[in-house]
Each structure stands twice: as structure tokens, then as C-alpha cells.
């Protein structure tokens, strides 16, 4: 059965600044989807991560479908009314366009979708991250799909022996999708050279080279490229089909124990470690730290089981402690050096105006 798995997410308002959506807001989005999904969706699931609400949907309409996208868009519009009525902060934050025009791509919400022939059993993972951008998944994906130190399956499972194809996008290119396809293991050093630059090169999808099936899709939108100015971080979502010809769930999850420093956190302008958190967690310290959640599902003919919360397991408590210490360590140096993002990535124009003004005051000493 050919199935489409879509996730569309947006920040449409939050309690206490950018912490998390209100219960009423979440309910209004959820009940809109429930009420309007009958002849469109096979199944759906909603969760929030930080201040972002995500709608995971299964259907047979293919990727980029206008009706599916409109359902999500309208749910977020309805939610925005609730957010306004409650006085939530940043009501409608990620809805950057006034009216829907066929597809939510380029309109603010993040989208990740893939169409595939459903396997006899179809385990998959849904990741959502807040206070960071799509490049945050670069390292975990590289390690899980290209490094046998993380994924022994690359050595042990014959069906993975040929490795994986990485489709990487240059997200600074705004007139159309600028992509490159590279193969692990042959192109490992080239893949690494691109993926180290998380603000420019982002994994968009990953494919098995044995079966040509798709395992991964990541939302790649950059809000400041759409809006031209700071409107919030690009808080990315990701879908990963696991097991059989793909890495095992545990191989996909393992790299999150690193808590790597990623772009994001306070005012979208800092480097902070990525913390794996339970589903429906808000954020806190320094508008962060950047968080990532993971819901695991099994699926049959598009019907999903209940979500299992992959980062709720006690193992991750210790990782969270380590990440907290890394976060505090980085914050000790305030604005200095590596703590703040490079000038080109700062989400506020204030500093540019300051530098322009100061530039006029520089003089060459006689
Ligand atoms: P969001 O993009 O999650 O709204 O975060 C804004 C921010 O940078 C908070 O400091
Ligand atoms: P405002 O500039 O909207 O107050 O948001 C700051 C912030 O928390 C987002 O980075
Ligand atoms: Mg927000
Ligand atoms: Mg957010």
C-alpha cells in the first residue's frame, strides 16, 4: 500500500514568552484536525515540543498535497484565533503569509513528508526540535547512517552493506532547491565537509542504496530566508523509518547522547547543547536549551499505534544532566566568542545598526 507520512508544524503562540503552547491552544488545533480530517486522513497525531505544535498525518494523497497542507494551515489559523483570545505571546508567529496558496512550503510552517510502499510492519520515528534549526540533525544523521562506531548494522546487516545516499540542501539558496547527492561510505569526507556547516548545508533526505527506499526526511525551511528578518528559529521536524534495511531505532537515537552544541536558544542567536526531552516538554533556561523530542510508532495500513516517548526512558536523565552542565558552562562566557552565533547568523538587526554607526567613527591613525 502506497502511503504518505506528513508532518507539518508551527509556532502559533505560547505561554510566558516562548515556553510552550497553552492547553486550550493545543486543544483547538487538535479538535480542528479531528473534525476536518474524515475524507483526507487515515490517521493523525499531535504533540508539542517547546512552543511548536506538530501535526503528524497518514494518508494516500502524496507529498505536497494542497488539501493536506490546507488542513494543517487552517488548523493553525484556528489555533491562532485561540492564541490571540488568550493573549499568548507570538500568536500566529510562524504564519508568515496572509492567505493559503496551495502549499505551506515557504509560508512559515515546517514540513517533512515522504511517500513509500508500507512494509509489512512499519516502525518509524517522529522527531521535533525547538530553539534550533534543521542543521541540528546533521551530526546525529551522519553518525547513524555513515559511522559503524554508532551503527554496527553497517557492518553486521548485509542489507545495509552498500550504505546510504545523502541528499543535502544548500539552504542559503532561496530561488529553488539547490541540492547535492552523496554516497556513504565512498563520499564520507565530502559529506562531513558539508555537514559541519550546519547553517548552510542541511540533510534533506537519506535513502537506502540497497533497496532505494527512503528512510529520512527533514524539514529544511529557514524562516529568516522567507521573512527577510528575524521571526523565530526554524525549529525542525524529521521523520525516520527504521529497522530492516534502515538503522535500528537504538542506532538512530544513540547520537543524541552527545548533546552537541547547535545554533539556537535565546533570541535564536546562540550556540547551546541539544537536550533530548520527553514529548510535550516546554523550554526554560535561557529560552532553551534547544530541545529535541522523539515519538516512536508502529503502523499498519496507515493506522498508527499510540506514540512511545523515546526520550522519556531513565537512560536520558543522565544525558539531560550533562547537557545542563554544558549549557551552564557555555553561558558563563555570555556573548563572548563561540557562545554567540557569527554575525551573519544573528537574528537581530540591532547589532548591524550598531556596527554601521561605529564604522563611521573609525579613523586611520596618521
Ligand atoms: P521560537 O523560534 O521557538 O519562537 O523561539 C524564539 C526565541 O529565539 C526565543 O528566545
Ligand atoms: P521579542 O524580541 O519578541 O521580545 O522576543 C525575544 C525572544 O524571546 C525571541 O528571541
Ligand atoms: Mg515562539
Ligand atoms: Mg519554537
Largest β sheet strand count, sense and barrel closure: 9 strands, mixed
Structural class: alpha+beta
Please give the count of helices: 9
The run of helices and strands is: EHEEHEEHHEEHEEHEHEEEEEEEHH
How many beta-strand segments?
17
Distance between the termini: 77 Å
List unreliable stretches of 5+ residues: none
Count up the domains.
1
Mean pLDDT metric: 95
| Ligand names | 1,3-dihydroxyacetonephosphate, magnesium ion
- The radius of gyration computed from the alpha-carbon positions, rounded to a whole number of angstroms, is 20 Å
Structural write-up:
There is one protein chain. This protein is of the alpha+beta class and 366 residues long. Helix content is 25%, strand content 25%. The protein has one domain (2-359). It is built from 9 helices and 17 strands. The strands form 4 sheets. Strands 5, 6, 7, 8, 9, 10, 13, 14 and 17 form a 9-stranded mixed sheet that branches. Helix 1 runs antiparallel to helix 2 (66-86) and helix 3 runs antiparallel to helix 5 (188-195). It binds 1,3-dihydroxyacetonephosphate (13P) (2 copies) and magnesium ion (2 copies). The site of one magnesium ion (MG) has 7 residues, from loops.
Amino acid at each position: 500500500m502506497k502511503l504518505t507520512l506528513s508532518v507539518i508544524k508551527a509556532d502559533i503562540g505560547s505561554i510566558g514568552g516562548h515556553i510552550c503552547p497553552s492547553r486550550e491552544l493545543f486543544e483547538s488545533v487538535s479538535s480542528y484536525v479531528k473534525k476536518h480530517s474524515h475524507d483526507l486522513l487515515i490517521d493523525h497525531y499531535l504533540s508539542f515540543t517547546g512552543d511548536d505544535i506538530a501535526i503528524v498525518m497518514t494518508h494516500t494523497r502524496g507529498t505536497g498535497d494542497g488539501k493536506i497542507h490546507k488542513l494543517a494551515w487552517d488548523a493553525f489559523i484556528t489555533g491562532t484565533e485561540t492564541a490571540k483570545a488568550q493573549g499568548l505571546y507570538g500568536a500566529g508567529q510562524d504564519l508568515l503569509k496572509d492567505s493559503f496558496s496551495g502549499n505551506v512550503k515557504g509560508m512559515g510552517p515546517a514540513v517533512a513528508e515522504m511517500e513509500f510502499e508500507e512494509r509489512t510492519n512499519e516502525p518509524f520515528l517522529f522527531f521535533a526540535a525547538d530553539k534550533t534549526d534543521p542543521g541540528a540533525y546533521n551530526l546525529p544523521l551522519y553518525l547513524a547512517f555513515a559511522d559503524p562506531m554508532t551503527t554496527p548494522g553497517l557492518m553486521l546487516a548485509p542489507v545495509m552493506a552498500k550504505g546510504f545516499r545523502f541528499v543535502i540542501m544548500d539552504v542559503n539558496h532561496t530561488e529553488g532547491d539547490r541540492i547535492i547527492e552523496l554516497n556513504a561510505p565512498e563520499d564520507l569526507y565530502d559529506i562531513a565537509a558539508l555537514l559541519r556547516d550546519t547553517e548552510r548545508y542541511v540533510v534533506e533526505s537519506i535513502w537506502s542504496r540497497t533497496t532505494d527506499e527512503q528512510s529520512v526526511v527533514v524539514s529544511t525551511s529557514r524562516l529568516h530566508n522567507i521573512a527577510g528578518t528575524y521571526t523565530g528559529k526554524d525549529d525542525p521536524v524529521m521523520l525516520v523509518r527504521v529497522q530492516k534495511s534502515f538503522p535500528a531505532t537504538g542506532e538512530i537515537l544513540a547520537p543524541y547522547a552527545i548533546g552537541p552544541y547547535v545554533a539556537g536558544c535565546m533570541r535564536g542567536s546562540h550556540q547551546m547543547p541539544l537536550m533530548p526531552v520527553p514529548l510535550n516538554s516546554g523550554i526554560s533556561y535561557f529560552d532553551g536549551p534547544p530541545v529535541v523530542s522523539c515519538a516512536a510508532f508502529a503502523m499498519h495500513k496507515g493506522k498508527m499505534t499510540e506514540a512511545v516517548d523515546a526520550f522519556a526512558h531513565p537512560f536520558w536523565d543522565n544525558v539531560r544532566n550533562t547537557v545542563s552542565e554544558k549549557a551552564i558552562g557555555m553561558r558563563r562566557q555570555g556573548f563572548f566568542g563561540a557562545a554567540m552565533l557569527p554575525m551573519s547568523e544573528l537574528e537581530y538587526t540591532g547589532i548591524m545598526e550598531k556596527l554601521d554607526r561605529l564604522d563611521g567613527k573609525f579613523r586611520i591613525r596618521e
